[in-house]
TrEMBL record, chains A, B:
PANTHER family (alphabetical): CRP FAMILY TRANSCRIPTIONAL REGULATORY PROTEIN, FUMARATE AND NITRATE REDUCTION REGULATORY PROTEIN
Organism ancestry: Bacteria, Pseudomonadati, Pseudomonadota, Alphaproteobacteria, Hyphomicrobiales
CDD domains listed in its UniProt record: CAP_ED (cd00038), HTH_CRP (cd00092)
Alphabetical UniProt keywords: DNA-binding, Transcription, Transcription regulation
InterPro entries, sorted: cNMP-bd_dom, cNMP-bd_dom_sf, Env_Response_Regulators, HTH_CRP, RmlC-like_jellyroll, Tscrpt_reg_HTH_Crp-type_CS, WH-like_DNA-bd_sf, WH_DNA-bd_sf
Positions of the Cyclic nucleotide-binding domain: 19-84
Organism: Pseudorhizobium endolithicum
UniProt-recorded name of the protein: Crp/Fnr family transcriptional regulator
One of the Pfam families matching this protein, by short name: HTH_Crp_2
SMART domains xrefs: cNMP, HTH_CRP
HTH crp-type domain mapped to chain residues: 146-220
Length: 248, 248
DNA sequence: CGCCCCCTTGATGAGATTCAACTCCAGTGG
DNA sequence: CCACTGGAGTTGAATCTCATCAAGGGGGCG
């Protein structure tokens, strides 16, 4: 059950269900499902954060809009994900449906009361928040240091892992979002995303069919091109430049 | 006490003490202080996450090292900050002293037990984690969309706000970290940071004296150059492209 | 005082953005 | 059934910002 707790592996996995899959899920199970059609807003940045959501079906993008109209997508959500934990009084980003979406809504008050009353639930919520934090850190690493190809490969690799974890047998990724979404998520332009996709296709790493379907032909190479293949894996430690460990 | 909860303002503030300043602090108050000299490591990425820390004095950098040796600084910590909340079983980054540092160490087990037993403490811990998440999101926005000047101005502005909040009367910022630290934090090179500093000086926005002292001469212009001056402030809302709100 | 490291400044080049044209596809209505 | 239309994606050429490579200052500490 705690296989996800080894050195790094669970970090990039956005699913909240790596541990104790059911206890959070159960909170929502008796609530009515709500439907959003594609393009509809679930909540806006700046709104009072009154609800926590569970995504039952479909995909959403979460983003912030800057003063000059630029959009930064900070994440995508899919079936099984929980949305709305890491907020104080107001939502710090907008959540919008990419595809038709089904969610369950739990009032924040009830949610907090349930968490307060359940010693089982607390570590699950805590782990969920820690995973979100870890994913944000990964994204910061991607945005600070990776070039266009590395970013796109990282993205495709993560989507592939998600698909496989969700039960896919073929290395086939369905990208619900548009190229512009991917660009805004990776800190690139739509043209650069498109060009890089083309380059990966011509290298034989992937093959695209239609706008939303990508088959991964060379997973190893994809991982290598993603740039963090050997990052701190299996016991590797950064060289300590001029410091010793703190005795304690 | 809840002034920090208005639309956005508290978001970028890393201090955990915006609300209920003392309850977290109190947890650590009876513990012995530990000292680290500059350059010493408090903990390494990948270490078992056994402790939570309170910084009493000094500054630290938290970072990850990539396979090829590149370093990504994901944050800086100062007196009053809490370190080590957002972890699962292992630390996901390294924490290293920039200046001589004094910390108090609380075992994770004890910390979790205390939190479990105190209904007062839980929302404080929760808010602290939410603030960390918000700061991470801000950093993602900075790294995705801002150019070198905007990044540096954002950074200086944040440091200025921290200094003022800490009781500074003059608009004087002390940068404990090196240019390389700033570069690794902002996703730039040391040369670009240096050039941009020079440019801001010659524009009369700031004036530097020595390597670590920066006086902010034109705070308004600095905020404007930071690029998010009018981002969603006072009720501004992003135009909803093709969506309506979900009725609920 | 002198050395070393940190920082600054300059010249060049690579990679991504920008601007622009064109293709492809889905949906619509005649 | 097919032409029309508009959004999404692709491709090309020019531009620009920032990284890289290289050399020179300056401050702090022995």
């Amino acid at each position: 059950m705690f296989v996800e707790s080894a050195i790094n592996p669970g970090r990039a996995v956005p699913s909240p269900f790596a541990v104790q899959p059911d206890s959070l899920h159960a909170l929502f199970s008796k609530l009515p499902a709500e439907n959003l059609s594609a393009g509809k807003i679930l909540f806006l940045e700046g709104d009072a954060a009154t609800s926590v959501f569970e995504v039952l079906e479909g995909s959403l993008r979460i983003f912030r809009i800057l003063g000059d109209g630029r959009r930064v997508i900070t994440g995508f959500l899919n079936a099984g994900d929980i949305l709305g934990l890491s907020f104080r009084s107001h939502y710090i980003y907008t959540a919008e449906a990419i595809t038709p979406v089904t969610v369950r809504r739990l009032s924040r008050k009830v949610f907090e009361a349930e968490v307060a009353n359940s010693a089982e639930l607390r570590p699950v919520v805590f782990n969920q928040m820690s995973d979100e934090m870890a994913a944000a850190q990964d994204q910061m690493v991607l945005l600070s240091t990776k070039n266009a190809e590395e970013r796109l490969c990282s993205f495709l690799l993560k989507e592939l892992q998600r698909a496989l974890k969700a039960g896919a047998v073929q290395p086939l990724v369905h990208l619900a979002m548009t190229r512009l979404d991917i660009a805004d998520y990776l800190g690139l332009t739509i043209e650069t995303v498109s060009r890089t996709m083309t380059k990966l296709s011509s290298k034989g790493v992937i093959s695209t069919s239609g706008r939303h379907s990508v088959k991964v032909l060379k997973r190893g190479l994809l991982a290598q091109l993603a740039g963090d293949g050997d990052e701190c894996e299996d016991g590797w430690r950064p060289a300590v430049a001029h410091g010793e460990r703190l005795r304690h």
